[in-house]
């Protein structure tokens, strides 16, 4: 019998979360009498750990998909996706342009070296690009003083038949926090104002949910949003839950109790004796550890659900096991089901918060040794 830990991914939850974002954008655009934005569903990092093929099925109603990895882009095409695919980091070597050409991929362009590669490429069709501005995050993108020149080079390549559409994009650093997007949006407006019309994309998950008004389109400009984490049912915000937006967790991580210890008062639990019992306790041993992707830094008090009853983790997470307080679930014994996060358990954001990290990391970190299954 296999070890009793598994992850399952609900395709219907993926569809539902996309529909939530679509409805938010449509309602905002309708109120303003504007064109609603198109959606690039972001499926980088194996769809945040949920599986590329599941994401293609779950996000079939999106207008496009966005990712980093060329191999994952190919898998999308092989899975039947015929719409736009955006490479968020673009291509890296001239040879990559063969795949960009063959699979009709849209590329982010954020360096002059990429423009040089495009200028000398032998392509069978025009390549659509999004020219990226570094508006203040200081990660990828052309500096504001250099952006007009880079965009002009792209427009020249369009005139020569190398490029198709030439769009403009940036990425917000603080859409999830009090600083917001106003400063970067102003930089974007100044750097891109007056340039030739083309697609525009500025909104990640946080900006899409919090500032849908900046994603409105008009008669002359197609706007694209790039939601990621919210499509998987987790929140981009520290202070706002995914459930408050009506989002559903797509991934559920489950296991079972594989052992029970009756521990007297004053005894240590787990490595390092980081927790000692204040009274006699029943302690359950769960088949899940940091080698499965559960965060080692999750400590005593991290929420967990046993046999449908909320309880807490005790002590330090081991490589293959963790311990839980069975006091709230006195009838739970060996074989009792455990929901580590997802449907029927705590949210992945709550677990991440207790571990001092974010839900993104946990979803992406589920180990290959954990069997995954697809739920409707």
Automatic annotation (TrEMBL):
The modification N6-(pyridoxal phosphate)lysine is found at residue 44. Pathway: Amino-acid biosynthesis; D-alanine biosynthesis; D-alanine from L-alanine: step 1/1. One of its GO terms (molecular function) is alanine racemase activity. Its cofactor is pyridoxal 5'-phosphate. Substrate binds at residues 139, 319. Keywords: Isomerase, Pyridoxal phosphate. It comes from the Bacteria. GO terms for biological process: D-alanine biosynthetic process. PROSITE patterns: ALANINE_RACEMASE (PS00395). It is an enzyme of class 5 (isomerase). Its EC number is 5.1.1.1. The active site is at 44 (proton acceptor), 271 (proton acceptor). Residues 250-375 form the Alanine racemase C-terminal domain. One of its GO terms (cellular component) is cytosol. It catalyses: L-alanine = D-alanine. InterPro entries: Ala_racemase, Ala_racemase/Decarboxylase_C, Ala_racemase_C, Ala_racemase_N, Ala_racemase_pyridoxalP-BS, PLP-binding_barrel. Belongs to the alanine racemase family. Catalyzes the interconversion of L-alanine and D-alanine. May also act on other amino acids. This is Alanine racemase.
